[in-house]
Amino acid sequence: MQRAIEMQGVPTVLVTAEPEETEQARAPRALAPRGFAPGHAMGPTAEIQRRVLLDALALLLGPPQPGEVVYRDYP
Amino acid sequence: MTEEQALGISRLCIPFTPFRGKLEEAAVCLVSTAGVRLVSQPAFDTQHELGHRVIPGDATSALLTVDDTHYDHGCVDRDRNCVFPIDRLRELVAVGKVGALTESHFATAYTQQLRDFAAFTAVRLAREVAAERPQAVLLTGG
């Protein structure tokens, strides 16, 4: 899905709770909150969700790392 | 079909579109594979689904539900933003960190038929997403 959207000329970023699968899929941009499980990809509270969202959107502004999954901790 | 159109893309090749401009001016579209939909929309088939739902940009998480039997619902049953952060994104728009939400967002659901998903669902949806003219797309899984 992400690759298809990028091929339409739209930049994307994925928040993933399954980083191994995401690495295999070669995502254009991906953020993996460390330890988050499927169903909790954005985190359990509004504050954590906001931080995850901002960090994911920030990957759009950073240096290209296609295929790399960026891990972050959200204690 | 021309030879160029028939060439396709290797799985080893990673499509990458640079982001241009500022987040503060960007319209962002949400796309999720977590089985999210409006309560008023037809339910997803939780065992195999190749369709998608269009979620209006002005929807709040209170109007959403989730059809899924494959991930833990401990978070999402309390708060749809756990997999579809539409309220959080709107809050970022309100404080000026993001330009806008697109008029529509998109959601798919579980399937094991990944070839069909890639060949049909993803292609159809990518075109609909692009038609929203977002400057960026945030994707979430289940």
What does this structure look like?
The complex is a heterodimer of chains A (75) and B (142). Chain A has 75 residues and is an alpha/beta fold. Chain A has one domain (11-72). Chain A contains three helices and three strands, in the order H-E-H-E-H-E. In chain A, strands 1-2-3 form a three-stranded parallel beta sheet. The model of chain A has no long low-confidence stretch (mean pLDDT 96). Chain B has one domain (31-140). Chain B has helices at residues 3-6, 86-94, 114-131, and strands spanning 27-32, 36-38, 53-56, 64-66, 100-101, 104-107, 136-140. In chain B, the strands form two sheets. In chain B, strands 1, 3, 5, 6 and 7 form a five-stranded mixed beta sheet that branches. A two-stranded antiparallel ribbon of chain B has the order 2-4. The radius of gyration of chain B is 16 Å and the shape is globular. The N and C termini of chain B lie far apart (36 Å). The interface between A and B is large, with 43 and 54 residues.
Cα shape of chain A: globular
Beta-strand residue fraction of chain A: 15-25%
Task: Name the poorly predicted regions of chain B.
Answer: none
Give the overall shape of chain B. Answer: globular
Question: In percent, how helical is the residue content of chain A?
Answer: 25-40%
Number of domains of chain B: 1
Number of domain modules of chain A: 1
Assembly type: heterodimer
Q: How does the major sheet of chain B shape up?
A: 5 strands, mixed
Strand segment tally of chain A: 3
Largest sheet, strands/sense/barrel of chain A: 3 strands, parallel
Radius of gyration of chain A over all CA atoms, rounded? 12 Å
Which class do the helix and strand fractions of chain B yield? alpha/beta
Number of helix segments of chain A? 3
